[in-house]
Amino acid sequence: MTEARRLYVLLCGYEILHKTVSTRDRGGRYIMAEPICAYLIQTTKGYVLFDAGFNSYNVEDPFRRAEYFPRRHGGYPPIVEPQHELLTQLEQIGVSPKDVGEVVISHSHFDHTGNIKHFRHARITMQRREYEFAMNEAVPSDAVIKPDFDYPDIHWHLIDGDWEIVPGVDVISTRGHMPGHQSMAVLLPKSGMKVMPADAGDLMENYDEEILPGQSVDDDSARAAIVRLKRIVESTHGEFLLTHDPVLIQTTKLAPDYYE
Ligand SMILES: [Zn+2]
Which long-range contacts (CB under 8 A, 24 or more apart) does 144-152 make? Predict the structure, then answer.
């Protein structure tokens, strides 16, 4: 029994990274162009947005660009073309931001929080540990752009662990890459289980070979998250939809097309 009806994959741009950002100690000489995805789930109870892409203003504005993407290791600015803008894609589907009542954020890195500003009417769910980490003044991460989500009028919904939004749409706690990282699993009526790990593992390689993400706050938890997500896919004969895999994205149905 599932309340999910459709799943749209929103390709929100690309980021330029050293491969070691995605795979621990692997591929030190390679630079990757990795997609940035967000997901819109239509349910019988309304729309759920999982992750919020990248805020293109952070690269268009010269001051923000210089502050957040100085030219150094890992500091290449993302590429967002007009077709990648999250609101443009929602418009193509015929969905207004106001139609989206639930937003779930996997973690506080800038490629997942960029468009939160458009959903201040909605309920925004983050793991409590992640929120506390992200709102801490002394955030030890240059991948968090606090002005993208530090608005006083946001309706935060802070959770501890797993959460069923509606039957068939589940938030799965996958801490490790970040203190309160979370993933999503959606059971669709025709195409079955889709598991969206976000950054628990960026690439299929992370799951096929159980390779840790480049960065983690707790390696044991990060490894357990990868194993847990694999088991969900295997036990349900489901499929991964990966946020950052540049090969998988080429065979993924992109909005306005959808999975049902
Ligand atoms: Zn990411």
Answer: 144/108, 144/109, 144/110, 145/55, 145/58, 145/68, 145/110, 145/113, 145/114, 148/55, 148/58, 148/110, 148/113, 148/114, 148/116, 148/117, 149/105, 149/108, 149/113, 149/116, 149/117, 151/116, 151/117, 151/120
**77 Cα: distance to centroid of ligand 1 (angstroms):** 13
Q: What's the CA-to-centroid distance between 1 and ligand 1, angstroms? A: 31
Give the distance (Å) from ligand 1 centre to CA of residue 178.
11
The pLDDT tens digits for 187-222 are: 999 999 999 999 999 999 999 999 999 999 999 999
- The CATH number given to 4-251 is 3.60.15.10
Tell me how far the alpha carbon of residue 120 lies from the centroid of ligand 1, in angstroms: 22
> What is the reported pTM?
0.96
The mean pLDDT value for 39-50 works out to 98
pLDDT tens-digit readout, 144-198: 999 999 999 999 999 999 999 999 999 999 999 999 999 999 999 999 999 999 9
What are the residue boundaries of the structural domains of the chain, listed by start?
A: 4-251
Ligand 1 center to residue 93 CA distance, Å? 24
CA of residue 228 to ligand 1 center, whole Å: 19
Question: Ligand 1 centre and the CA of 112: distance in Å?
Answer: 6
